Amino acid sequence: MNAVTDIAEVYDLLYRLGFSATNTAFFHLSYAVYLAALNPHWLVKPSQRLYSEVADQYNANPLQVVRSIDGFACASWHKNAVLLRSLTSRPLTAAPTSTQFLRILVHYIRRRSRRSACPPASIPTTSIPRSKALSSS
């Protein structure tokens, strides 16, 4: 799909947080995370583009999308705060807002995708001595 992320990675993360795909709210959140992973600049002001893109995809309005994400942010804090804290790179002392929650999930997904996309640290290379390379041309 894309080098940054795959929607299945987003689903896996949400399942690990204890959520299941039982209603539209799950898909609002998963699609928002997916789009934001592909377009991280949309997280600066998600109400300008991200929420409306998700709403258009699911025939909803942006406020419904924000409420869906807010509900999951609060639920993740109450269900699995330990895992949620482990996803962040800084202390988390209260339930995150919808925007903070999206940023946490997107940061985790992008960081994980970058690790799996990086080539091994030691790649064997064969080098031609400079004198031979110059003489053969």
Task: Kindly describe this structure.
- The chain is mainly alpha-helical.
- The protein contains six helices and no strands.
- It has helices at 7-16, 24-38, 50-57, 62-87, 98-117, 130-135.
- The longest helix has 26 residues, at 62-87.
- It is globular.
- The protein starts with 6 loop residues before the first helix and ends with a helix.
- Residues 118-130 have low confidence and may be disordered.
Short description:
The chain is mostly helical and 137 residues long. The protein has helices at 7-16, 24-38, 50-57, 62-87, 98-117, 130-135. Helix 1 packs across helix 2 (24-38), helix 2 (24-38) crosses helix 3 (50-57) and helix 3 packs across helix 4.
